[in-house]
Amino acid sequence: MQSQRVLISGAGIAGPALAHWLATYGFTPTLIERAPTFRAGGYMIDVWGTGYDLIERYGLLTVARERGYIFDRLAFVDGEGRVTASLSGAVMRRALDGRFFSIPRGDLARSIYDLIADKAEVFYGTTIAALRQDADGVDIEFSTGATRRFDLVIGADGLHSRVRELVFGDESRFEKYLGYLAASFVVENYPHRDEATYVSFAAPGRQISRYAMRENKSAFLVVFAEKEKPAIAPHDAAAQKALIRARFAQDGWETPEILTLLDAADELYFDPVSQIRMPRWTDGRVALIGDAAHCPSLLAGAGSAYAMLGAYVLAGAMRDAAGDATRALPAYEQRLQAFILRQQDVAARFAGSFTPKTTLGIALRNGIVNLMNLPLVGPWLARRMLGETFPLPDDS
């Protein structure tokens, strides 16, 4: 098994998570990442259910909770800053027996990456230029011009996966655009801070949320409806910022201040709210995990959990099959696909309620949020909204 060389494209969450388990089971992982350095940015993610179980299984619960946050309140405000709906954080924690917290995506990614610091080769600023597989392995030509041969290649390279493009076809064949765009950025010294509170302003079809972080930093999440996905390159930050400014230019609350800060933001996460739906995630000695295989959409709030889950299940399948990809990859698909499809269906239905497109929709959403503060109603609704938990296989 130690002779099995696995190339993993993508060093976000899914890739390092897979590298950790493969190294643990005796495989030899190599990670490549398009970005020039480790990407620490991203939005706040909530941890519960399967995600909480996995962080515990990875041995990261203590460090993740130390780097994470406990929000005491969710507050929705109108254009004048008046609170129109609010929810106590205790409702979610009570519904989930205290197994619930929030953590910046970059901090979770760093926690997982630290597990493989001395277990895997990692090459930044590198992508796959060409891929050719046969019955015994996969020949890779890297963007650097170097060539190597691997026993298995895994695409853990996100919504815009290069591995998926090379092996399965163009992204447009698999992307299901849900009609929204999302952006996130972090600034320092923002004057409005509501500690331990997630504050969100909504107008029909658009929403800006902020939350206070440590070291006097504040993070912002911007979501807005867009009927057609705009033709903006993934790394064209200037065009992305211009579109956000245009959509929110007339809004009240703190929006003018936030848009000013957006102009100066060094790092901007920006992507369509889309799902990736594929009939299969494997082809010969190539497999996809995480968003590259089955992105549930940012608004589902579980992409990081499913990235860790795919890594855990695939590595376990490789271990159980003693490195035989012809047995391991079909087993990985069979174990996960039905569960993931159900979660994608739930996420697609949820998108419209996250950022309602009408004044009536906002009023209904606010009413439900206020209703959740009732002792019996809140935990019941929370459990229904958060969905099912995946039963984890044994890792021994």
Can you characterise this structure?
With 396 residues, the chain is of the alpha/beta class. It folds into two domains: 5-69 and 101-173 and 275-351, FAD/NAD(P)-binding domain (3-Layer(bba) Sandwich); 178-272, D-Amino Acid Oxidase, Chain A, domain 2 (2-Layer Sandwich), CATH 3.30.9.30. The chain is built from 13 helices and 18 strands. The protein has a seven-stranded mixed β-sheet, with helices on both faces. The protein has a six-stranded mixed β-sheet with strand order 7-2-1-11-18-17. Strand 1, helix 1 and strand 2 form a beta-alpha-beta unit. Helix 7 packs antiparallel against helix 8 (255-264). It is globular and about 65 Å long. The two termini are 16 Å apart. The relative contact order is 0.17.
> Using DSSP, what is the number of strands?
18
Provide the helix percentage: 25-40%
Uncertain runs: none
Main sheet: strand order:
5-4-13-14-15-12-16
State the fourth-level CATH superfamily of the largest domain.
Answer: FAD/NAD(P)-binding domain
Rg, alpha carbons? 21 Å
- Overall tally of structural domains: 2
Report the CATH topology name of the largest domain: FAD/NAD(P)-binding domain
Number of helices: 13
Question: Mind summarizing the main beta sheet?
Answer: 7 strands, mixed
Alpha-beta content class: alpha/beta
First-to-last CA distance? 16 Å
CATH 2nd-level architecture of the largest domain? 3-Layer(bba) Sandwich
Mean pLDDT, as a whole number?
92
CATH class of the largest domain: Alpha Beta
Residue share in β-strands: 25-35%
- From the spread of the alpha carbons, the general shape counts as globular
